Amino acid sequence: MKIQHWIGGLLAYVIALVVLVPATWLAPLAQTYGDDRLHFSGLSGRLWNGAAEHLEIRAGDRSPLRLERFRWRLSPLRLLSGEAPIYVENGGGDLTLSGWLRPLGEGISLRQIKLETSLATVLAWLPGLAGQDLVGTLSLSADAMTLGRTYAGEGEGVLRIDAAAALKLPAGRYRLALQGQGGRLVLRWNGPEGPRSMSGSGWWDGRLHLDGAPDAAHGGTR
Fold first, then answer.
1. What's the predicted TM-score (pTM) here?
2. Lowest-pLDDT choice from 23-27, 72-76, 160-164, 179-183
3. Residues 153, 140: contact at Cβ < 8 Å?
């Protein structure tokens, strides 16, 4: 048998494996190779197109991030045009999310991302901001953005603050702009809407720096 026949047979086997393997295989794979960070339950569908009723993401001593009605779809052919090949969608839990992603060596590439979560969830994943008594929601969207060792792309969002006693911020709706610039993600904001509107800036480089003052840094490590 010629070598091309062996290669063709191997490719056919790999494709069949991906298409036919049930999504339930993800749970033991995540436990074995996921460093105890991913915990699936209620899995259904196939490895290339499946769903989980619950997904818990753990990282160090942070509060687990709990997702509900999580779905994914793999589209390897998108790689040929340099596009992100994994579509994810989450309908509940600590956040709602939809969009395409592509894991990188030291980060992740995001496409057509939309996300909404509570400020309590954000604070839980930024330990330096814990205890700030900040109540509200955060919505973000980006057509194309890269996060990791370097940052690229642009995004926008809305921050709605219902209460912020410790930070003494006026309640209301704030607009956010994000822009990747090499080793940092630059943040600009203005709000709340109305006569008390103000503006500010900062950046994220593994820590959150506000108003360009490094000694006023908050947050945790990457």
1. 0.79
2. 23-27
3. no
Residue 183 has φ and ψ, to the nearest 5°, of -90, 10
Specify whether the CB–CB gap between 150 and 182 falls below 8 A.
yes
Mean residue pLDDT across the chain: 81
Q: Residue 153, by phi and psi: left (phi above 0), alpha (psi -120 to 50) or beta? A: left
Q: Are strands 38-45 and 49-57 parallel, antiparallel or unpaired?
A: antiparallel
**C-alpha angle 120-125-129 in degrees, rounded to nearest 5:** 70
Q: Where are the beta strands (DSSP E) in the chain?
A: 38-45, 49-57, 65-74, 86-93, 95-104, 107-118, 134-148, 152-164, 172-181, 184-191, 198-204, 208-210, 217-218
**212: part of which helix (H) or strand (E)?**
none
* pLDDT, tens digit (0-9, with 9 covering 90-100), for 112-159: 999 999 988 888 877 565 556 778 999 999 999 999 889 999 999 999
Percent of the chain with pLDDT over 70: 80
